[in-house]
């Protein structure tokens, strides 16, 4: 785990399962447009949350690439799930802007609901095919850009599934000259 502290906000990267972040008030889902369970992150979150999450999502769907919507956590230990639709790499364009919008809008939704802690997976880097390194650069850069505008969010965590992805984030954190 690597931790940065900036403007009174803790930023960290860890290896783990996004559905197993009991100390975070909100977790972010790498959703599909219909906000249905699916595989990867979405599958893990919906499995842990139970069928109530799909029910809560239904009236909010469909969402567009870059958009974020917020629900309760149902059976998860988290109070909220923030569902983001990342871009499908090579299809939704401009991919970098749409991916940045996911992080921006997710933090915006968290702020609006007075959320203090948010855990992000590496949105779009699984089934949606976004190259891991490019996506990690955008994720960290966007979150850093948003920090000054945050008032309720005090703790942001990137949860990476693989050791390789964790290495990537740790390297980017080290290169952050703050
Ligand atoms: N916890 C943390 N990270 C995970 C987990 C987990 N439990 N499972 C996978 N990852 P993906 P996407 C990593 O495919 O690319 C779904 O079916 C994974 O290794 O979940 O945005 C939806 O329904 C990868 O690095 O999200 C959509 O249709 C990253 O999380 C579509 O996939 C994102 O992988 C969304 O695709």
Describe the structure.
- It is a single chain.
- The protein is an alpha/beta fold and 178 residues long.
- The chain has a single domain (2-175), classed as Leucine Aminopeptidase, subunit E, domain 1.
- It is 35% helix and 21% strand.
- The protein has 5 helices and 7 strands, in the order βββααββαβαβα.
- The protein has a 7-stranded mixed sheet, sandwiched between helices.
- The model has no long low-confidence stretch (mean pLDDT 97).
- It binds ligand AR6.
- Ligand AR6 binds at residues 17-19, 30, 32, 38-42, 44, 86, 121-128, 159, 161, 165.
Question: What small-molecule ligands were found?
Answer: ligand AR6
The quaternary state of the protein chains shown equals single chain
Instruction: Say which CATH homologous superfamily is assigned.
Output: Leucine Aminopeptidase, subunit E, domain 1
Query: What fraction of residues sit in β-strands?
Result: 15-25%
Brief write-up:
Helices cover 35% and strands 21% of the residues. It has 178 residues and is of the alpha/beta class. The protein has one domain: 3-Layer(aba) Sandwich (Leucine Aminopeptidase, subunit E, domain 1).
